[in-house]
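Technical annex, item 7. During the second reporting period the consortium partners agreed on a shared format for inverse folding records so that results from different sites could be compared directly. Each record opens with the tokenized structure and is followed by the designed sequence. A conforming record, contributed by the partner at site C, is shown below for reference.
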């Protein structure tokens, strides 16, 4: 934690959905933070609302790292078992998407997983430490379900294995749900096999769909897992039976995360399974939530095709607190683009003024340390990115600071903001003709690394180029690049 400033409050505080209060973050193991963020269901492109969730996770991870924590960030890829209703109803999203596009489920999963990471890379979202696919963890899910069954929380009905929520006393604590209300709200026509309307499937053998593409043998028959069990099984595998933080969008509170808690705590008998639950509010358009399944949604590529830089969208998101609903509009995105342009101008001007001394200052230069402390105070106050951005602007506009000092502090702040502002301090390609040649040389080196299947080196070269403000676009015709 040595790079904290003297004025920094020692503690990170986070709003915990479990208990609905702001709490000081106290890790289970000193200096370490285990974090699980629910990942995408890869049946379609992520919409810009989904991407808000991943930018939120990124800010959390970067803040924890800034505070000196060794973060293990785990994210799942849902490539099986997610029905269009979170409550075991509707169609299997993966199967429906594959049928519609005339592809296999795995082809669809592969394609949209790559598209997802292309988006998160373009948004400057750090890759998780562990990315795990549901289809590669079926044995872990079966083992966890067996433990839940041995402890008496399940029943078989109509060929499926269900979790009986009435046997789990804390069911609904996260969402402040009441079982009698759940019963009263039950709809007719819902799954008749369920003893309680909130019960959910751990293992399906009776698929509603003729051609369920992916099925596995299990003690309950050939079938496939329910959606919720994958997150319990994979988080337990990579983070242990108790871990620090779990996050997702607010839509996950009443069903998905509630069910994850029931499963994980029923299996282990331990409570709490997760100490802190963080939920981001929705990005909304025209007063409705943006949904991948309702069609007509905006993707990051749509914004790029409309002439925006992905980091304009990141800037727009940072301008809102993750627990406030954010209304998307092109006018607001224009505002973010203009602000980012001013930011670039300011950084370039400071770099020119700083001249040879640019980059030689340490970030904790005394002159700028007040702004850095303010920045840190904003982040440790439940990740207040709007206030953190305001500190960055305060710093950049302060005429009393030496340019090199302001610049160094801005780069330091960017470790969390992820706006790649270091690249903006560099001369433009027109000002520096050697730049394009250097980029081309690195692109060739990356191509060679890929041909030699040295993907770690290829990724490292991409990262180096990213630091120079260069974004690569791979296509069948080759690799092109652009400055961010
Ligand atoms: P999915 O791929 O549907 O499982 O969703 C991925 C993540 O995006 C989850 O954490 C959701 O809670 C979150 N999410 C979905 N829609 C929105 C939205 N409009 N705004 C913010 N987060 C969302
Ligand atoms: Zn999940």
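Designed sequence (site C submission):
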């Amino acid at each position: 934690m040595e790079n904290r400033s003297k004025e920094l409050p020692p503690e990170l505080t986070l709003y915990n959905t479990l208990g609905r209060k702001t709490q000081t973050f106290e890790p289970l193991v000193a200096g370490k933070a285990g974090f699980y963020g629910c990942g995408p269901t890869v049946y379609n492109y992520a919409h810009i609302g989904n991407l808000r969730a991943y930018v939120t996770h990124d800010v959390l991870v970067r803040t924890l790292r800034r505070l000196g924590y060794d973060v293990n960030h785990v994210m799942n890829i849902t490539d099986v078992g997610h029905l269009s209703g979170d409550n075991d109803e509707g169609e299997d999203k993966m199967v429906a998407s594959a049928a519609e596009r005339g592809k296999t489920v795995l082809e669809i999963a592969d394609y949209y997983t790559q598209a997802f990471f292309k988006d998160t890379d373009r948004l400057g979202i750090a890759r998780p430490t562990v990315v795990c696919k549901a289809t590669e963890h079926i044995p872990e899910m079966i083992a966890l379900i067996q433990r839940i069954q041995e402890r008496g929380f399940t029943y078989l009905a109509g060929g499926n294995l269900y979790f009986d929520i009435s046997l789990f006393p804390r069911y609904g604590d996260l969402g402040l749900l009441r079982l009698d209300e759940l019963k009263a709200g039950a709809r007719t026509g819902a799954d008749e096999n369920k003893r309680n309307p909130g019960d959910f499937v751990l293992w399906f053998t009776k698929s509603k769909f003729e051609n369920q593409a992916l099925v596995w043998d299990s003690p309950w028959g050939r079938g496939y897992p329910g959606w919720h069990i994958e997150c319990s099984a994979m988080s337990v595998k990579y983070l242990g039976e108790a871990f620090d933080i779990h996050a997702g969008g607010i839509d996950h509170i009443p069903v998905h995360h509630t069910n994850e808690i029931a499963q994980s705590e029923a299996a282990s008998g331990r409570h709490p399974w997760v100490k802190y639950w963080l939920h981001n509010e929705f990005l909304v358009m025209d007063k409705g939530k943006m949904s991948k399944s309702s069609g007509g949604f905006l993707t990051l590529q749509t914004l790029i095709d409309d002439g925006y830089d992905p980091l304009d969208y990141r800037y727009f998101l940072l301008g809102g607190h993750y627990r406030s609903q954010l209304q998307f509009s092109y006018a607001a995105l224009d505002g973010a683009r203009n602000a980012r342009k001013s930011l670039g101008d300011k950084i370039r001007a400071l770099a020119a003024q700083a001249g040879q001394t640019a980059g030689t200052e340490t970030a904790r230069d005394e002159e700028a340390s007040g702004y850095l402390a303010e920045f840190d105070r904003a982040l440790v106050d439940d990740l207040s990115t709007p206030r953190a951005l305001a500190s960055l602007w305060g710093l950049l506009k302060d005429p009393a600071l030496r340019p090199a000092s302001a610049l160094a502090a801005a780069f330091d702040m960017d470790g969390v903001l992820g706006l790649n502002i270091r690249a903006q301090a560099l001369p433009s390609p027109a000002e520096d003709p050697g730049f394009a040649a250097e980029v081309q040389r690195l692109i060739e080196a990356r191509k060679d690394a890929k041909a030699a299947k040295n993907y770690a080196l290829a990724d490292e070269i991409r990262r180096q180029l990213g630091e120079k403000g260069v974004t690569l676009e791979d296509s069948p015709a080759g690799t092109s690049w652009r400055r961010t």
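Residues 330-354 form the longest helix (25 residues). Residues 38, 231, 256 surround zinc ion (ligand 2) (CB under 6 Å). All partners now use this format for quarterly exchanges.
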